[in-house]
Structures are given as structure tokens and as C-alpha cells.
């Protein structure tokens, strides 16, 4: 199945769970396999963009969320090596990697504002 369709299904079926997971996420990188890419949302997207500078940032909207949702994506081949170097939890298309340091709300908000601006401008 093409990555775009996998992403669309992930967002349609899991956006509430994903955004809930990210709401208080200070210590983890939550990644989702959509085939040719791994994607992360919100705080995890901030972490992913810090690890993989060449990641692509995308914005989208979901019902009952007044702001854009920020997503970062990285080609699958680039992320696979990262899993071998770090401890992670695997569950189907989902991976959870623990970080060495907490992500402050200030740093996240600054990154998010810059990410949204970079896409919209």
C-alpha cells in the first residue's frame, strides 16, 4: 500500500491516540512506519527534526483540534540505523524510543512556532 494512503489511514484512525500520547511527552520519540517513511507528530516531530536535520515538516488539521498538527517525516532507510543504536519498544507500525533528556515546553513551543512558520511562508 502506498505511503500516502498509510499516512491517511493512520491520521484518520489514530489521531486522537497520537495527539494524546504527545500532549505530555517529555522523554520519548514516538514513530510510525508508513512504508517508505517514518513519521512523528508534535513533540516527537521536534525530537525527530533534531536528530535528522533533513526531515520534512508537514502541517495538517484534524477534527476538534483548532491548531495545525505538525508532522516530521524521514525516509525509512535513514531511521533504521537509529533503532539499532537505541533501546526501543516495538508494536506493529509503532516504535517508542526513550530519549536521554527531557524536552522543555519552551524549547518545544519555539520549535513548533518556527516549524509552522517555515511551512506557511
Distance between the termini: 32 Å
Helix-and-strand structural type: alpha+beta
In N-to-C order, the SSE pattern is HEEHEEHEEH
Helix content: 40-55%
Largest sheet at a glance?
A: 6 strands, antiparallel
* Percent of residues in β-strands: 25-35%
Mean pLDDT: 92
**Structural domains: how many:** 1
Q: Given the structure, what is the number of helices?
A: 4
Which word captures the global form?
A: globular
Uncertain stretches = none
CA-based gyration radius: 13 Å
Order of strands, widest sheet: 3-4-2-1-6-5
Tell me the layout of helices and strands.
Layout: H1 3-23, E1 28-33, E2 37-41, H2 42-51, E3 56-60, E4 69-75, H3 76-85, E5 88-91, E6 94-98, H4 105-120
Antiparallel strand pairs: 1-2, 1-6, 2-4, 3-4, 5-6
Describe the protein in words.
This protein has one domain (3-120). Helices cover 47% and strands 26% of the residues. The protein has 4 helices and 6 strands, in the order H-E-E-H-E-E-H-E-E-H. The protein has a 6-stranded antiparallel beta sheet with strand order 3-4-2-1-6-5. Strand 1 (28-33) and strand 2 form a beta hairpin. The longest helix is centred in the N-terminal third of the chain and has 21 residues, at 3-23. The chain is globular. The model has no long low-confidence stretch (mean pLDDT 92).
